[in-house]
Design goal:
5-stranded mixed sheet; 5 strands; 149 residues
Amino acid sequence: MLIHIYINEKLTEIQCDADTMLMEVLRKAGCKSVKCGCETTNCGLCTVWLEGTPVLSCSVPAARCDKKHVTTLEGVQEEAEKIGSLLVDEGADQCGFCSPGLIMNIIAMKKELTNPDEDQIKHYLAGNLCRCTGYMAQMRAVKKYMEVE
């Protein structure tokens, strides 16, 4: 089937099967920030925005994205660099494998929530699995990012 997806605001024509997941399409389109960590919607590594809302691209059929806007980390580089720098400063970026999905959710959270407390941050980011950091350094970085305007 032929679908048309706006990937990071660029209209892209894609040939795919009906059961092809969005993550596969995005990786083939060159969006290497979209990663597969589990294929069971439990890790958050494949997080992208579909029409501005965070989704797990490993569980979204690409066909459902026809004529829709998908944003990956490549499409929010300037904002991603801000939170990325804070993650590094706090020692929260060790292997970096989880960073793209985490960063996409952090940016979305900042757009959605005003002055969230720690429990709200934990709830919003609960689907992001990190096997390296222990989350405390990430929490410090997120709190600093949420304070920055």
